Amino acid sequence: MSERDDDEREFDLRWAAAAEHKEPSARARMLAARWKENPPQPQPFRADPGPVGPRRSSWVSTALVLGCVAAVIVLLGYADFRGSY
């Protein structure tokens, strides 16, 4: 591109940005039309997600995983022991 084309493009961008009336995006028009018929319910800022059940401690989760791994090791060892006869 030549320097003149860059100047013309810069002018076009400044002209577009300085426009008095800017058309809303397609999504904004779609939401405005939808909300005109069925407005959304008001939501508080950072709404409370609701009640949360009790959480397990990280030790319980770790013990559960290690217990499952130990059970698999014992099961595989038992299967190998039974298969060697």
Fold topology:
Elements: H1 3-17, H2 26-37, H3 58-83
Features:
85 residues; mainly alpha; 0% strand; elongated
Order of helices and strands: HHH
Biggest pleated sheet? none
Oligomer: single chain
Low-confidence stretches: none
What is the average of the pLDDT values?
A: 81
Query: Total number of helical segments?
Result: 3
Shape: elongated
The beta-strand count equals: 0
The helical percent reads 55-70%
Terminal CA distance reads 83 Å
Spatial extent as radius of gyration:
33 Å
Given helix and strand content, the structural type is mainly alpha
Please state roughly what percent of the residues sit in beta strands, choosing from under 5%, 5-15%, 15-25%, 25-35%, 35-45% or over 45%: under 5%
Brief overview:
With 85 residues, the protein is mainly alpha-helical. It is built from three helices and no strands. It has helices spanning 3-17, 26-37, 58-83.
Describe the model.
The chain has three helices and no strands. The relative contact order is 0.04. The protein is an all-alpha fold. It has a domain at 58-85. The radius of gyration is 33 Å and the shape is elongated.
